[in-house]
Structures are given as structure tokens and as C-alpha cells.
What we know:
With 118 residues, chain A is mainly α. Chain A has helices spanning 13-36, 45-67, 78-94, 99-115.
Amino acid sequence: MSLTFEAIDAWWWPYLFILVAGWLATDAWRWLGVYLGGRISDASDVLVLVRTVATALVAAVIGNLIIFPSGALAATSLSLRLGASALGFVAYLALGRRVIVGIVAAEAALAIGMLAGL
Amino acid sequence: MPEPAADLVRTIARHRLWFLRGVSGAFSLPGLILASAFVGFAGLAKEAGLTLAQSVFMTGAVWALPAHVVLVGAILSGNSLAAAAFAVSLSSVRLMPMVVALVPEMRGPATRRITLYALSHFVAVTSWVLAMEHLRRVPLDMRTSYYAGLGGTLMVGNMAVVAATFLIAESLPPPVSAALFLLTPIYFLTSLWGSARERAGHVAMVLGLVLGPLFHVWLPGFDLLAAGLLGGVAAFLFHRLAKRGGAA
């Protein structure tokens, strides 16, 4: 048996799911941060591991969103999505590392690609 | 000596002034980029089958975009409550050192601990960056008021952004909708790279990007956990080896 988001057909279940898997799972760390307030060094190895696991986890979601997208993006070709993402990332790196530059470049590439019927 | 009542009125007026300055601090380029990322998140949440009320609730309850994306990703992959909570928790450990760094900046001599616990909920990348930048120019006893204005505005404002996106998402033409779904990945592709403090962060990112889709096929239901743990630990080992290599 698996308690997924759709497992229980009651109005309150999704909210409970969000509270436990979302709110508690994030705010517990914030509270621990207040409790520890100023007692941990930012460069300690444990925190490096914390950061790499969190980064890999979010990157895994990003990879899934590009390779296996949902909604209207699923109608575009994989090569267009990869191309637009790569272009946005390269523009970000090349033009002063601004997030907004990467977003605009990737979206422009996607728009042009869709217009061209790629 | 001034009357206590007049003193109180003046203190309240100061708190309101600094609160409002915090509110106006939210209207900034980082704030705008964050709003565009929440537009993307709203599209994602809708696609995952969440209702408007659930999505707005999630925005306020979680208030950390990586955790949002992981949570919706876990829902999309059909993960169980335990697996989803574990994955979100792993993605949110990083909030702890952020709060640890922010607390000394925010605490005045008379700041109550309960105030700090309450305000810590607003800590997420954007409000944290803005706060670390601006708090030093705020009088010590006004910093909690300032941060309440800043963090509260960002949170409530983006709850409104999510609701508004939900309402218009239906009527968007497919190409616009497709562009909306690309917002979240590109936002994180760039901001994650920029926020990495050490090279290992970049290694972790590349590993996660590749391992996520692979485990999505091999190990559905545990794809995020497997990719995060494997990629993260491998990047950490790289960090240790690089450090030893640098020292030798």
C-alpha cells in the first residue's frame, strides 16, 4: 500500500499531504536554524554534503521537467527543449551570469523553434 | 522625560515605517524573477492535478521554491507521503544554514526568540539574499519589522501570483503555456549554478540533471531520492578528493 497524493479520496487529504511532506519538511530545518543560530560554520564538510545532495535533488527534478515534460511543453520535440535549455544556459554563462538573461534566451529560442515547427 | 504614551506611539510609528520599507524592498529585480518562477510553478502544480486552493496553500505553507518543485515532482511521479516528505526534507536542509547565518543579522538586544521562530518561515533564497544585503542599513531594533515586511510581501504576493496564473492558465494558447512550463527548469538551471558555493555544487548539478531522467525510467517512485543521494554523495566525494589533491 502506498500513501500517494491521490491515495485517499477526501478533501482534507491533499492538505495533510502538503502539511507533512511540504510544511513540516521545510520549517523543521528553519526552526533548527534559529535554535542553532550562529553556532555552525558555513564551510564545514557536513554543510557541503547538505548542499550537494540538495543541489543534485533539485537538478534531478529539472532534468525530468526537460526530458519528460507535462502539459503543452510535452507537444514540443525533445531536441527543441534540449536546444532551448542549452542556449539559455550558455547565454546565462556568457552574458554576465544573470538569471533573467538565461530565461529570456531560452524562451526566445523555444518560441522561434515552435514558430519554425521544430 | 517624554510621556510613556507618546513614546509608545512613536515606537509603533517607527515599526510601521520600517515594515513598509521592507514591503517596498520586495519590489525589486530579484522579486520580479521570483514572481516569474512562481508563474512557472503554478503551471506545474496545475498540471500535477492540484487545485487552485491547494496550490496557494502550498505556496504559503512551504515557501521555498526548490521544495515546491521537488514536492510537485514527487506528486507527479506518484511518490508515497513518506518518500515525498523525505525528498522535500533533503532538498530543504539547506534552509538551516541560511537561517543560522541570518539570525545574528536580525537579532537585536530585545528580540524575542518566538519572533525569530515565526519570521524564519519567510526564509527562502530571494528574501534571504535581499535581507543579507539590506539589513545592515536597518536600525538593530527595527530589523525584525523590516524583515516581516519584506518576507511577508514576497510570500503573500507570490500566493497572489499563483492564484492569478491558475485563473488565466486555462485560456492561454498552447505555445504560451509551453513557454510557461519551461520557466521553472530554466530558472533553476541558472540560479542553482549561480548559487553554488564550491565546484562540488556544479558537479552535483550535472550529476542530478543526468541521473534524474535515468532513475525516472529505472526506479520510478524513488527517482528523485536516488538521483539526489547518489549525485550528492558523489559530488561530495569529488569535493573531498579535490581538497586533498589541492593540499598535497
